[in-house]
Amino acid sequence: xxxxxxxxxxxxxxxxxxxxxxxxxxxxxxxxxxxxxxxxxxxxxxxxxxxxxxxxxxxxxxxxxxxxxxxxxxxxxxxxxxxxxxxxxxxxxxxxxxxxxxxxxxxxxxxxxxxxxxxxxxxxxxxxxxxxxxxxxxxxxxxxxxxxxxxxxxxxxxxxxxxxxxxxxxxxxxxxxxxxxxxxxxxxxxxxxxxxxxxxxxxxxxxxxxxxxxxxxxxxxxxxxxxxxxxxxxxxxxxxxxxxxxxxxxxxxxxxxxxxxxxxxxxxxxxxxxxxxxxxxxxxxxxxxxxxxxxxxxxxxxxxxxxxxxxxxxxxxxxxxxxxxxxxxxxxxxxxxxxxxxxxxxxxxxxxxxxxxxxxxxxxxxxxxxxxxxxxxxxxxxxxxxxxxxxxxxxxxxxxxxxxxxxxxxxxxxxxxxxxxxxxxxxxxxxxxxxxxxxxxxxxxxxxxxxxxxxxxxxxxxxxxxxxxxxxxxxxxxxxxxxxxxxxxxxxxxxxxxxxxxxxxxxxxxxxxxxxxxxxxxxxxxxxxxxxxxxxxxxxxxxxxxxxxxxxxxxxxxxxxxxxxxxxxxxxxxxxxxxxxxxxxxxxxxxxxxxxxxxxxxx
Length: 603
What we know:
Blueprint: E1 6-12, E2 18-24, E3 28-36, E4 43-52, E5 60-63, E6 75-79, E7 87-93, E8 105-110, E9 116-119, E10 125-135, H1 138-153, H2 157-170, E11 173-177, H3 180-196, H4 230-241, H5 245-256, H6 259-269, H7 291-296, H8 299-315, H9 326-340, E12 342-344, E13 349-351, H10 369-388, H11 395-403, H12 445-456, H13 467-477, H14 481-491, E14 495-496, E15 501-502, H15 515-529, E16 533-534, E17 539-540, E18 551-559, E19 562-569, E20 572-579, E21 589-591, E22 595-597
Antiparallel strand pairs: 1-2, 2-3, 3-4, 4-10, 5-9, 6-7, 7-8, 8-10, 11-18, 12-13, 14-15, 16-17, 18-19, 19-20, 21-22
Helix pairs in contact: 3-15, 4-5, 4-8, 4-15, 5-8, 8-9, 8-10, 9-10, 10-11, 13-14, 13-15
């Protein structure tokens, strides 16, 4: 097609996450659609639609230019035998993740892309479909290719993809009245986060965790190499777990799959139990290119166990901890904390020495208040879980938990970030302010306020995107909705047009598709405006809405197997029980100045 054309681009998040590139000319409109199939995650699709724009008896031919040449310095590819008309290449990773480890294989099968497509004289429009399958075994690749060919033959390729997305969106919706910009941002956050998680229908594929930028991309040093950090467990996980217990469990199963690597990490550091890596890939062995982070940023252990605790309180799914081996994670981390802690006879407290807090401007410090608090809570959860599973807990777990130092300045009535922190010194990101949420450390409103005020003034304005969401949650806890809203406004600088993609930093630099920032922003709404807190015996809530938001609707909250829709207004809370848990024993009452039992369909 040699005619001049206008180019437009679109992304449909609601009906199938389909990215389209449209070329419009006087004689024909050409639309290229790209999507990764939601139901079959190994399957990627490209469709070309030609639509005649004027009456003509002439054929219209469009030339296709394909630059698909798989290459990687990490994988050696070679051609394989064609499969059912599809081209096939296979590759093997050149270097194992650790000495003696296996080198994964990859198989790609794709349909042939012709040099031209022609709209015949009698046709007003025509559509062509092309598929690519990526898998780690030939059997899986061929099975998915067969499925793709069958879906194309029956006309169900796109409809099945759109149906899967529709089902997914029915499980969760966050709607805001009063701020269209906030609505768009929330849809974008949910869409990109869900796109990074596995299909809720597919239990066979191995989930490899979620990196800060989603799928690994970029060159050396870019977008964190696709490694998995605390970002997954602390920042992305809570907003997903509130709606999708299957996806939440997939995150935990990923961590369970890295137990052997975590055990090896602990042994190499000279400690017992499990030490989850600061940067994780497949094996669970430390893959961080800089040793200091893997050695000192040990709060990752508590971050992992907090996700397990959150899951148990949301679902009461003990099978995750028995057959699913979750208890090995919890007990292994507890053993690590006990062996890592040092007794200080002067203070009569256990210390955690030589650590790096979440605020990475500081390292080799003692008693990071965040690290010690999350360690204390993970030890307490280990004791609690052992009791529930009738497993005798070592007395050291409770002993260290009770006597682990939590730094506190009695005179200033605030929590210093670590021993020796000088109040007013700059910090990189949310750290101490996370004691209230998500850790849930009990403190007076005055101390919570002091922490927020002390660190808000000195937090790097160009720091990571997720920071201000945590400050906003803190102010919402104190009923300061307008102050929280002011801080949330800062997050919009990280949202890049036109498709609501987040950058790590507000100037557009850093990781692209920064899911960590999206997760923090989503939590500010889901756990800030609503006041949701996932607790041992209940789902607590304490809504606070800013003046410019008249209504917040959170649909599909999944608690103890029941699905609820929450409608929050300034002077009204409406809770609809959409679906009740199968087990009558799981049905809970809701305390609203009294007890109100909820039944399906009733408000």
